[in-house]
Amino acid sequence: MKNSFKVFFGLLVCVGVIHLYSATPYLRPAGFKRGNNTCFMNAGLQALTAMDEVTSVIAHNKKRLTSESLAASYRAMLPRILRGTTVLNPTKLYAKGWMQLHMKPGTQGDAGEFLTSLLNCLEKEYDDDFAELYTLTLESSIPDYTPVRTENVTCLTLSVNQGDRRLSDCLTQYFTPEREKVRDTKTGILIDRPREKYLEKTPPYLILSLNRNSYRYNPHTKRLNYIRRSNALSFPLTGLSMNEFGTNKDFGSYNLVALVMHTGSGVSGHYTAYTQRDSPWYYCDDSSISPVSQTKVVTLSQGASTKSLPTTFVYKRTAN
Fold first, then answer.
1. Is residue 195 exposed (0-12), middle (13-18) or buried (19+ Cβ within 10 Å)?
2. pLDDT number for residue 128
């Protein structure tokens, strides 16, 4: 009788675990308590939670992680994150986050940088299959002069220029060939040639981060003047294609699942996030989580001028 009860109880536990990770995730995302400049980590955590295939790998993999690491702190909190409808105060994770970024505790950071740093930390703990969920493969070369150079990156960091009005403008600029000096093999003379950059492989999740900060030299003061590009950008909610940036490849189509927004300057301000799992969109502002209409998200995607500006996008490839 006791053995039967143990078997029955064990089955209930297994069913509960399966239900937690495979059923419709939750009514709304979990919130994160706002601490001293923790909003950038809170927004980054929301973006990661929207990457359901990534969180599924983390939740199911029982590999022993490095004690006290950022990855271990995140995995320990993940079941409560996935249950949602609550407010968490991950003080231990915050401390590890600042340490991972080599920043003084309480310092404001960048949400996109935190997201990629957390993924890189998790990547070191898991196998290569985990990284394939979000790692892009880039190739570049100077045709007829240099061999192909291959680079794997977690995130594409795109510069925002003054005339940019669409996310596609930033992507086009990123893949525009840059001039480099190369020595001619016949004459030995240094010549200018374009280095071409293109996509070789795209992952199930595509992370794009915007760099709105730049500096311009002022000849009068002989100093660098800080410039922050505050122009709003339009971006696709569905159907993002990266095919034009590859070499005769079909990378599929991507839909937006997370959007990180920032209000303020380049050195201070506040981060929030919009996330989608299944169909509803939610606005995540630290501990405050609220549903938003599709109309609101569409308005943002059209480049509506607001105090908050998009800084990081997470797209998920759609099924063929």
1. middle
2. 58
Query: Domains in the chain: how many in total?
Result: 1
Residue 14 lies in a domain: no
* In a domain? residue 87: yes
**Quick one: pLDDT at residue 106?**
86
Confidence (pTM): 0.85
Q: What does the alpha-carbon distance between residue 283 and residue 183 come to, in Å, rounded to a whole number? A: 53
pLDDT score at 217: 64
**CA proximity to 135, closest of 86, 52, 207:** 207
Domain assignment of residue 253, yes or no: yes
**Could you count the other beta carbons within 10 Å of the beta carbon of residue 17?**
13
Residue 64 buriedness (CB in 10 A; 0-12 / 13-18 / 19+)? exposed
DSSP states along 155-218: -EEEEPPTT--BHHHHHHHHTSPEEEEEE-TTT--EEEEEEEEEEEE--SEEEEEEE-EEEEEE
Beta bridge partners of 190: 183
Question: Parallel, antiparallel, or unpaired for β 281-285 and 269-276?
Answer: antiparallel
pLDDT along the chain (320 residues), means of 10: 44 40 57 91 95 89 77 88 86 87 87 92 78 93 86 94 91 91 82 89 96 72 70 93 89 96 81 88 94 92 84 90
Query: What is the rounded distance in angstroms from the CA atom of residue 57 to the CA atom of residue 51?
Result: 10
Range of the domain at 230: 26-317
